[in-house]
Amino acid sequence: MTIKVQSYAAPAVKSKLSPLQVERRDPRPDDVVIEVLYCGICHSDLHQVNDDWGGSIYPMVPGHEVIGRVLSVGPAVKRFKVGDQVGVGCMVDSCRDCGACKKGLEQYCENKSTLTYNDRDRRDKMPTYGGYSEKIIVTEAFVLKIPDGLDLKGAAPLLCAGITLWSPLRHWKVAKGSQVAIVGLGGLGHMGLKLAKAMGAEVTLFSRSPGKEADARRLGAQHIVISTDQKQMDAVKGRFDLIIDTVPYAHDMNPYLATLALNGSLVVVGYLGNVEPSLNTVPLILGRKAVAGSVIGGIPETQEMLDFCGKHGVVSDVEVIKIQDVNEAYKRMLKSDVKYRFVIDMASLKG
Amino acid sequence: MTIKVQSYAAPAVKSKLSPLQVERRDPRPDDVVIEVLYCGICHSDLHQVNDDWGGSIYPMVPGHEVIGRVLSVGPAVKRFKVGDQVGVGCMVDSCRDCGACKKGLEQYCENKSTLTYNDRDRRDKMPTYGGYSEKIIVTEAFVLKIPDGLDLKGAAPLLCAGITLWSPLRHWKVAKGSQVAIVGLGGLGHMGLKLAKAMGAEVTLFSRSPGKEADARRLGAQHIVISTDQKQMDAVKGRFDLIIDTVPYAHDMNPYLATLALNGSLVVVGYLGNVEPSLNTVPLILGRKAVAGSVIGGIPETQEMLDFCGKHGVVSDVEVIKIQDVNEAYKRMLKSDVKYRFVIDMASLKG
Predict the structure, then answer these.
(1) B282 — contact with chain A (CB < 8 Å)?
(2) B351 band by pLDDT with thresholds 50, 70 and 90
(3) What pLDDT, in 10s, does the model give residues A104-158?
(4) Model confidence over A83-100: pLDDT tens digits?
(5) Which of A289, A299, B315, B345 is most buried by a 10 A CB count?
(6) pLDDT at residue B1 tops 90
(7) Which residues in chain B touch residue A288, judged by CB atoms under 8 angstroms apart?
(8) How many Cα atoms are found within 13 Å in the side-chain-facing hemisphere of A26?
(9) pLDDT tens track for B181-211
(10) Nearest-5° Cα angle at B265, B264 to B271
(11) What is the pLDDT of residues B123-152, one digit of tens each?
(12) Measured between beta carbons, which residues in chain A are less than 8 angstroms from residue B292?
């Protein structure tokens, strides 16, 4: 038995999204059935629709920044009840048994976590469908609580963009007085400014182009450094404990290495591919610096971030759209023409 | 006033080394005057003689793995007395005032530490001359104690090769049960095997060529992985907490990234230059892995290592030569024809 749910889907590779009924599983005892209220649009939605990383499954219902309300719960569900505000991020399951899962780092599951869409359920092997949909059905262990008072539209991007920045900020132990820099001011970068600021860090934005100063300051940056201006780069030489690089394409990382402090780390979260131009080891060796990577975050740290955001009133800056405008939004996203994240009001699906 | 000391020096770039009297400073109140007994030969001696890194000062007396005996001490010297066994490593001074120096990380001195040779003294601006010399004069703060019972010939390479491996092993918190791999079996690599083993780690050697198995096991490796054998590489996928890469030339680091565990680090200590072929960020991001660098070690950690080596009986495997054979030793070093470090018996200088 399955449930038919109205969704927006890409029927085939590189195709436009259009309405489609898809079949979701009948709820299992540990499942939470969620009415989707808002769903953020992530760059990776477009990458997967276009099969940029290979292995895409069609029809594809994207969306892994899901905010909703609980419609029903299975008899084994303990932490949620009908009417609760909940979130679902990039994962809907994992092996729950490997070293990473046991540490609450399901994003690094040795047996690969189950992605919210473009993947297959571990138990029944049905395709997973994301949040561009009226309903989503997720095992309790991968459902997040959304704190009261948090703006629901702005909370949606926390589930991917937010946790992608939060996890390295926490892992690299950012605290009051830490020197943190964020490279790039997009969906990821703007969350980096907000979260690092709220954690008490002194926050710098690296940007290639001027004109972002006022926005960057409003979002939490105390300093803006134009990375193409050698004088400005020299002025921050050796400064940063942590740089989070959100740029989604190949770019020269060497200039940023010079701005790391002793023992500092440059953490790449936006670009999957070869580091070109190539990295030079001299600054790494002579300053015990590191280039590292990080992907989203585990379920416990995602809940921790949501609670933190509830307490500090941190949400994403969003532009709310109707689902019917999703294809246009993808085009604008490619041109970075969004401040700073599109969020779909899923009520529009019924319209 | 200066003191004339018999030495072996390179009179000019790329020239052979030959006997030369050089002038060292008259001892200052905080100086220790040391009779050099043994001096190790480091790859970087040859690099600097050849001016591979630019800025070399000639005549050059190389040598920064110095073991000696105290001949006299200045009136301000507190920790040493005539007759003490002492060591001098790669540095003879630093600013002692910056953040790094205050943490005992003089190797990362923000104002650049003073190198044992091929540099200039911070106070009198005289050139520094290394350990291929009958005597060396060093401020007390940069002189190390050599524990009783440690073989002096074998102890010499601890001052550079040893500390170069010890510092990352400690910084990355290697302990009993840690999974450690060493890439390359030379002067640095063989110290990595010995030290990691003595620290209680499970130690693997990555080698490009077979035939090193027996030696590697004797030195401390429990496992030997031929890095050109994909099957062997696959068998250690995701295993290592720390890989220390001692290879002194450009090489593909990507295969090693796959063998790092979640949160693992590949630490480059042997190669200064561009990472080519270029690094791929995918394993970094999907396993929160890091590529880092490290250089020698600070004075406190060098003393800590020497004390550890005294307790565990760890010294370098050396081939002792006469100073008259240093040019031949350089040639053999280039062919990796040494197990595993040349050490000059400085008594030969009088011969």
Answers:
(1) yes
(2) confident
(3) 999 999 999 999 999 999 999 999 999 999 999 999 999 999 999 999 999 999 9
(4) 999 999 999 999 999 999
(5) A289
(6) no
(7) 108, 171, 292-295
(8) 3
(9) 999 999 999 999 999 999 999 999 999 988 9
(10) 155
(11) 999 999 999 999 999 999 999 999 999 999
(12) 284, 288-291
State whether B110 and A238 contact (CB < 8 Å).
yes
Which of B108, B110, B291 lies nearest to residue A290, judging by beta carbons?
B291
Contacts of B273 in chain A (CB under 8 A): 280-282
Q: Across the interface, which of B268, B274, B285 has its CB nearest the CB of A272?
A: B285
Q: Does residue A289 belong to the interface with chain B, where contact is any CB pair within 8 Å?
A: yes
- The residue whose two tokens read 């449930």 is A3
CB contact at 8 A, A172 and B288: no
Write the single-letter amino acid at B49.
V
Are B278 and A275 inside 8 Å of each other by CB? yes
Q: Do B171 and A288 touch (CB under 8 A)?
A: yes
Contact A20, A42 (CB under 8 A): no
> Which 101-120 residues of chain A touch chain B by CB within 8 A?
105, 108, 110
Query: Is the pLDDT reported for residue A22 higher than 90?
Result: yes
CB distance B288–A290 less than 8 Å? no
> What predicted TM-score, i.e. pTM, was given to this entire model?
0.97
CB spacing of A278 vs B275 below 8 angstroms: yes
pLDDT at B209: 85
Q: Which two tokens stand for residue A314?
A: 């941190």
Task: Scan residues 32-91 of A and list those with Cβ closer than 8 Å to B.
Answer: none
Whether residue B278 lies within 8 A of chain A, CB to CB, comes out as yes
Please give the Cα distance from A326 to A341 (Å, whole number): 12
Does A285 contact B272 at a Cβ distance shorter than 8 Å? Answer: yes
Question: How do beta strands A18-25 and A31-40 pair?
Answer: unpaired
Q: Which of B105, B273, B275 minimises the CB distance to A262?
A: B105
Q: In three state form, how does the secondary structure of chain A look?
A: CEEEEEEEEECCCCCCCEEEEEEEECCCCCEEEEEEEEEECCHHHHHHHCCCCCCCCCCECCCCCEEEEEEEECCCCCCCCCCCEEEECCEEECCCCCHHHHCCCHHHCCCCCEECCCCECCCCCCECCCCCECEEEEEHHHCEECCCCCCHHHHHHHHCHHHHHHHHHHHCCCCCCCEEEEECCCHHHHHHHHHHHHCCCEEEEEECCCCCHHHHHHHCCCEEEECCCHHHHHHCCCCEEEEEECCCCCCCCHHHHCCEEEEEEEEECCCCCECCCCCEHHHHHHCCCEEEECCCCCHHHHHHHHHHHHHHCCCCCEEEEEHHHHHHHHHHHHCCCCCCEEEEEHHHHHC
Find, in chain B, the residue whose alpha carbon is nearest to that of A99.
B262
